[in-house]
Specification:
By secondary structure, this protein is of the alpha+beta class. It has four helices and six strands. The chain has a six-stranded antiparallel sheet with strand order 4-5-3-2-1-6. The mean pLDDT is 94. It holds the Pfam family HIT.
């Protein structure tokens, strides 16, 4: 497939952190996987229960997404919001997504952010601490039992999160 013409300036870099997380080359908390989509617990928690929804395929930006992937992504986004709502019962759930360096895209693999709002309202776009994978596993454990079932998408919640006895 030829590269789509676009004015968007993507972040540079040969290796993709998200592809490394999805393949298991680098550790990260995967909340659930589907045939086309995965949902991760980000180490930079900018809200409560902050998740990343991304296509399994290395899709550089929203402009590069196939129709079938777009459908699967929107269903997963909805269910990520439902999962956060069920687990944390926040008064708001924010969803955001950036394309191009000028829009603050840092990794050239499409990802949507989904996060429950903070006690003061909104989400934190300043400096936030980078949590350990152990800490994001705890968040994933809290969320895992609330993930809606969707077997037709191939959805599989990470059994390491549901089986482990992690602190709440
Ligand atoms: Zn990638």
């Amino acid at each position: 497939m030829s590269r789509r013409e676009s004015a968007i300036e993507l972040p540079e870099g040969d290796d993709c952190a998200f592809c490394d997380y999805l393949s298991g080359r680098r550790p990260y908390t995967v909340l659930w996987r589907e045939d086309q989509v995965a949902v991760l617990v980000t180490r930079e928690q900018r809200g409560i229960g902050h998740l990343l929804v991304l296509p399994n395929r290395h899709v550089p930006s929203l402009l590069h997404l196939f129709d079938g992937e777009a459908e699967a992504m929107m269903v997963a986004l909805r269910d990520a919001a439902i999962t956060i709502d069920s687990a944390y019962k926040r008064p708001g759930v924010a969803v955001w997504q950036n394309n191009g360096v000028a829009a603050h895209q840092a990794i050239p693999h499409l990802h949507f952010h989904v996060a429950g709002t903070l006690p003061g309202g909104g989400t934190d776009f300043g400096d936030v601490p980078e949590l350990s994978v152990d800490a994001t596993d705890v968040i994933g454990h809290r969320l895992a039992s609330f993930v809606p079932q969707r077997p037709h998408s191939g959805r599989r919640v990470n059994s390491e999160l549901t089986n482990q006895t992690l602190p709440e």
